[in-house]
Amino acid sequence: MERHMDSVDHTLLRILTRDGRRSVSDLAADLGVSRATVQNRIARMVDRGTIARFTVELGPNEEEAVISAFCLLKLVANDTRPTVAALRKIDGTGDIHSLSGSFDMIVEISTHSLKKLDEILDDIRRVPDVAETVSSLRLAKVSR
Predict the structure, then answer these.
(1) CA torsion through residues 14, 20, 25, 26, sign
(2) For residues 106 and 93, what is the distance between their CA atoms, to the nearest angstrom?
(3) Given phi > 0 = left and psi -120 to 50 = alpha, else beta, which region is 101?
(4) Labelling 8: which of 32, 112, 128, 143 has CA 20 to 30 A away?
(5) Is the domain defined by 60-137 classed in CATH 3.30.70.920?
(6) Structure pTM?
(7) Band of the pLDDT at 37, cuts 50, 70, 90?
(8) What is the residue-wise DSSP string for 38-93?
């Protein structure tokens, strides 16, 4: 029988989303449970796919060296799967989100030069079902 997430699971997930490097001991103390309980809950969330991956967020010095952009896409097709598959193959593309409204998708882009950003945007425009794009550079991260 699959167990649903309770308030401890939700709190644990919220803490890990903000700081994935927190020690199991600190997490256990914050949640008022044992270390084993925290370890078991994290393992269960990974097994169920609730936690898909652990990742690294760049510090301020490294983040300034990265050029980040967002590219809005308007598509001509209703089936977005081929477009998503093509976008994932483009080096420098990150998260892809579907949208409601005037545009169908937004793609996050990260690279180390404006020349490479231009190449990535050209590659995105060449994806068959992409009808229109609008891109914007990320200047500063306001908050997390």
Answers:
(1) negative
(2) 10
(3) left
(4) 143
(5) yes
(6) 0.60
(7) very high
(8) HHHHHHHHHHHTSS--------HHHHHTSEEEEEEEEES-S--HHHHHHHHTSTTE
Encode pLDDT of 56-104 as tens digits.
666 655 555 589 999 999 999 889 999 999 999 999 999 999 999 999 9
Exposure b/e, 109-138, CB count within 10 A at least 16 = b: bbbeeeeebeebbebbeebebbeebebeee
